[in-house]
Write a structure and sequence with these properties.
Elements lengths: L1 H6 L8 E4 L5 H10 L6 E4 L6 H8 L8 H4 L1
Parallel strand pairs: 1-2
GO molecular function: transferase activity
Keywords: Transferase
Protein name: Glycosyl transferase family protein
Length: 71
């Protein structure tokens, strides 16, 4: 995920969205701010409401992360 964050300046259009509240979130958010990418990278909490599936539907691609990796 860190490499994806570093690639954001190379992505011409769009927004990178991270969904979830795992261990990596704080570091990714800090790096987003340091790199001045807050306008291109968004963070959302994992939700069981209808909002999260809607984000999945409109995404260009998803990178499923194995839950054990993030624990």
């Amino acid at each position: 995920m860190e490499k994806l964050l570093k690639a954001v300046p190379l992505i011409r259009y769009g927004t990178v969205v991270f969904i979830g509240d795992g261990k990596l979130k704080k570091g990714l958010m800090d790096e987003t701010e340091r790199a001045g990418l807050a306008n291109r990278v968004k963070f959302f909490r994992q939700s069981t409401s209808s909002g999260t599936p809607a984000l999945y539907k409109i995404s260009l691609f998803r990178l499923p992360i194995i839950k054990q990796y993030l624990l």
